[in-house]
Amino acid sequence: MDFAGSRMRCAEALGRLSGVLTHDHQRWLLGSFCALGRVAFDPGLFAQRYPPPGSAHTFAGACEELGLTLEVRRGGLDALLAWRLPLALEVTSASGLDWLLVLNADEHRAVVLERGAPAPVALELQSLRRRCRGTALCLGPQAEAAADPDLIEPRSARFGLHWFLPELLKH
Predict the structure, then answer these.
(1) Which residues, in sequence order, are CB contacts of 84 under 8 Å at separation 6+?
(2) Which phi-psi region, left, alpha or beta, contains residue 75 (left: φ > 0; alpha: ψ -120 to 50)?
(3) How many CB atoms lie within 10 A of CB 165?
(4) Angle, to 10 degrees, between the axis of helix 7-15 and the axis of helix 56-65?
(5) Residues 141-170: pLDDT tens digits?
(6) Model pTM score
(7) Strands ordered across the beta sheet of 132-141
(8) Radius of gyration of the chain from Cα atoms?
(9) What is the 3-state secondary structure (H, E, C) of 13-32?
């Protein structure tokens, strides 16, 4: 679902994730996607502007403020990986539910970055399939309005000879 289309629908979709999408998850997800999209992000300022506990509405507001489009999808791992990369995938971990960032994938493995890990690692899809909870989200830069070079704008000044006479008098 496209965040730009309806903030309310997206916030409702994220509302189902409110127990899983903690403030720390939000800060990590925003920081990761901002780094990938080369958008400036300061975790300290995020914590000040959106203090814990985080909610779906604060996450959606932070995305909008950073100029990011938020999309949430549910489905099987194969469908989610075919949707768009990079994406954040909700997974089970030793500490409960968590998120990881899928950077790239092929038929056999996916390159993922887990929260707190210093570098991405390659995981077999079978292993990732066992951990996948079926929810993914993607943050990307908002599309800018297209500029139409053929657009004809009305002139603000009236047509006339008022500009011609001063130029003629110069010569």
Answers:
(1) 71, 138
(2) left
(3) 9
(4) 140
(5) 877 767 767 766 665 556 566 777 777 788
(6) 0.71
(7) 68-74, 132-141, 87-93, 96-105, 109-114, 121-124
(8) 23
(9) HHHCCCCCCCHHHHHHHHHH
- Quick one: tokens of 148? 């139409």
CA dist 89 and 98 (Å) reads 8
Give the span between the Cα atoms of 158 and 18, in whole angstroms.
Answer: 59
Residue position matching structure tokens 């289309």: 5
Q: What is the pLDDT of residues 23-66, one digit of tens each?
A: 888 888 999 999 888 888 888 888 888 888 777 778 888 888 88
pLDDT tens per residue across span 29-39: 999 999 888 88
Q: What residues contact 81, with CB distance under 8 A and at least 6 apart?
A: 87, 102, 105, 110
Distance CA 26, CA 13 (A): 15
Q: Please give the Cα distance from 12 to 1 (Å, whole number).
A: 11
**Cβ 73 vs Cβ 83: under 8 Å:** yes
Instruction: Give the DSSP letter string of 113-155.
Output: EETT-SS-EEEEHHHHHHHEEEEEEEEEEPPPPPP-TT--PPP
Q: What is the DSSP-derived secondary structure letter of residue 33? A: H
